[in-house]
Structure formats: C-alpha cells, structure tokens
C-alpha cells in the first residue's frame, strides 16, 4: 500500500484539464495552462494527419485535455474539443452535423431534414475550382446576378453567339434563339 499515493499522483499527472494559452500556427504547437502551470509548446490532436489532413487549430481559451504519457508534461499532447461556458456547443439538435467558424459562418447538414447549408457572413465569398467540370443535378435557384466570363448555353443555344430565326424588319417579334 505504500506505493498507492505515487500511483494516484502519476495517474493525476497523465490526464489533466487545461485551456489553450497560446498557439504557434507555423509549428502546429500550442501551450496549455493547467492551473498555475503552463506547458512548453506541445502538439494538438488534429483529427487526421496522414494522406487526409485536417487543419483546425485550437483557439486561445479553448478547453482541452492534456494527455501526458507517463506523467511527462514535456511529452504532452492537447486533445481539443471540450465545450465550456466560454465556448459552448453551437447547436443542440440530433441529426445535425454543424461546423461553425469564428466569424459566424456555418456549414451544416441536417440528416433528418435532408438539408445541406453553407451560410457565409456578409461580404464573404465562395470559390470552387473544378478543372474537370462542375455538375449540378436538380433545380437551381439563383437570387442575384449571374456573371459568366465566357458564355452561357442552354439546350445547345449560346447566350453570347445565338441567332434568331424568322427575323422581320419593323416592330415584329423575331423567332426563338437557335444554335449558331
């Protein structure tokens, strides 16, 4: 029984709650405050770090679990993602997967409602690069202006280069556009 206090102390040193004190983005390291103690720079668990890699650095003040193999804080790793009063859960809906960004933008999928939403903040932009093409199957609604740098085609008829049949002089209406 004489070794019990040492085992309890060691177990207490292996896993600790803390908060992110600083973040070094270039090194992908952070420091963690655990009470009065602050660690040296330690890595955070990224979720994916192989062929698929996820970049979502922790925020200063975010609550974490500091995992310290053999109780060695210098070998610690920050496990992020613990909700707290300072950083509460962004939703409380079953079936909803939601990613909320610091500026308020969201990306969500509601499996119960079958709805994918990308909601950006005012003045934000979206850019899709698809050198092989982009296909949308289904009705499309655009609220606003559509701008094309080259041409727009529908059913083989070019908006930019189409011609009309049945053209008459004067005030008569021409025929529908036809492929050039």
Automatic annotation (TrEMBL):
Residues 18-83 form the Gp5/Type VI secretion system Vgr protein OB-fold domain. This is Phage baseplate assembly protein V. InterPro entries: Gp5/Vgr_OB, GpV-like_apex, GpV/Gp45, Vgr_OB-fold_dom_sf. It comes from Sphingomonas morindae.
